[in-house]
Amino acid sequence: MRTRSWIAAVLAATLLAFNTTRVSATTRSLWSLTDLAAQRVEVADKVAAAKYGTPSPIDDPVRDQQILDDVAAKSGPLGLDPAETVAFFRNQIEANKVVQRGLYARWAAHPDEIPAARPDLATEVRPVLDRLNAGLLAEFAATRATRAGRTCGVRLAVTVRLVTWQRRLDALHHKALTNAVPSVCAAS
Fold first, then answer.
1. Which 3 state secondary structure label does DSSP give 25?
2. Which domains are present in the chain?
3. What rounded mean pLDDT belongs to the chain?
4. Are the beta carbons of 88 and 168 closer than 8 angstroms?
5. Are 9 and 158 in contact (CB under 8 A)?
6. Residue 73: φ, ψ to 5°
7. Would you say 41 and 173 are in contact if contact means Cβ atoms under 8 Å apart?
């Protein structure tokens, strides 16, 4: 079954690649945007490790709002609709929480899997998230024409499957990646 899904994804990617030769030169692949979202989902492991067993909650509305305010302010000069940009980044934040909650549940059931090292959230993890957020914002702007295209949904679905395969994401991280991208396509 897994092989069949992979073959279907490769066929779809091939068809899309063939079809994109006729698409305007202003369109851009969704690969970088999706891969950055996957990287952000993977960093959620470090966020969870930093917070687990501490008073720091998974939900941090103050930090979330800081991120959303920052991307809203930066979106206008990039030619992006601030509301669409905020929706996209809200999905990124919520996807990160999917991983954190999943790992908390796993660690509660299997304490031997709790990470031995606790990364520092402020100095080790947030700078990585800030770099990924900057990349995501740039790619969100760079893919504006692609995201508005009628094939965006299909292209995104294929790209999510291929990124999941390439990064070897487990079910939890694949679910989070899927949750990170529903607002990518303008027609969604």
1. coil
2. 28-180 (1.20.59.10)
3. 89
4. no
5. yes
6. -65, -35
7. yes
38's tokens? 């996957």
Query: Which tokens in the block code for residue 172?
Result: 């939890």
Please name the residue that has the structure tokens 């966020």: 47
pLDDT tens for 77-121 read 999 999 999 999 999 999 999 999 999 999 999 999 999 999 999
Interatomic CA distance for residues 147 and 156, integer angstroms: 9
Look-up: residue for tokens 């709002």? 65
